[in-house]
Write a structure and sequence with these properties.
Layout (H helix, E strand, L loop, with lengths): L4 E2 L3 E5 L2 H8 L3 H8 L11 H13 L9 E5 L5 E7 L14 E7 L8 H17 L3 E6 L4 H9 L3 E8 L3 E9 L8
Parallel strand pairs: 5-6
Antiparallel strand pairs: 1-2, 2-3, 3-4, 4-5, 6-8, 7-8
Helix pairs in contact: 1-2, 1-3
GO molecular function: acyltransferase activity, transferring groups other than amino-acyl groups
Pfam family, one: Acetyltransf_3
Organism: Aquitalea magnusonii
Length: 184
């Protein structure tokens, strides 16, 4: 069992292969039992990322602790989103930009409440203490102003714009640990 990552308001719980399979097959009650928390129907919209992360875990067992985690409210257990590292540290696709790349999604009802910042910071701290990670990467659509602003507040700086075959243009941003935590 992979340990939860805790932050002041969140539990970042690893999503097991069984939980991901149940989710991808729209067996939400079963997936909720695996997770230990209820799942909204909108969870099914994340099937593509679930499939990608499940394939990675099955093909690279060391990736499991870096894979997809649910963002759960500590107080109620309610799902507010998910976060993951795209690979284990040092993957060649990063081309020296950083040690690991993070991705996240917050459910619409929970956006603009600081959950993404809290989850990113907690995962980054975990990566630093687990594997000595020093530089983090985010890839954000130029049109995603809230995520662009979040990245800026954490000290991420623009490195380049790339064309993602699935997501279109993305700004690649990098930040060194510790994040600057500019709350302006």
């Amino acid at each position: 069992m992979i340990a939860d990552i805790l932050s002041p308001r969140l539990i970042l719980r690893h999503l097991t292969p069984d939980m991901l399979r149940a989710s991808m097959q729209a067996r939400l009650a079963e997936a909720a039992r695996w997770l230990g928390a209820p799942l909204p129907i909108s969870w099914l919209e994340e099937a593509a990322v679930m499939s990608l992360r499940l394939d990675q875990m099955e093909n690279e067992p060391d990736y499991a602790p870096w894979s997809m985690r649910a963002m759960l409210l500590r107080e109620t257990g309610q799902l507010v989103g998910h976060i993951n590292f795209h690979t284990c540290p040092g993957h060649p696709y990063l081309a020296g930009r950083g040690d690991v790349e993070l991705g996240y999604s917050v459910l619409p009802a929970f956006r603009r409440q600081g959950f993404a910042t809290e989850a990113l910071t907690a995962c980054a701290d975990w990566a630093v203490h687990t594997a000595g990670v020093k530089r983090f990467v985010l890839s954000i659509s130029p049109d995603n102003l809230p995520s662009q602003q979040l990245a800026a507040r954490l000290g991420f700086r623009w490195l380049e714009r790339v064309e993602d075959p699935e997501d279109g243009p993305e700004d690649v941003l990098v930040a060194d640990w510790p994040f600057q935590q500019d709350h302006a």
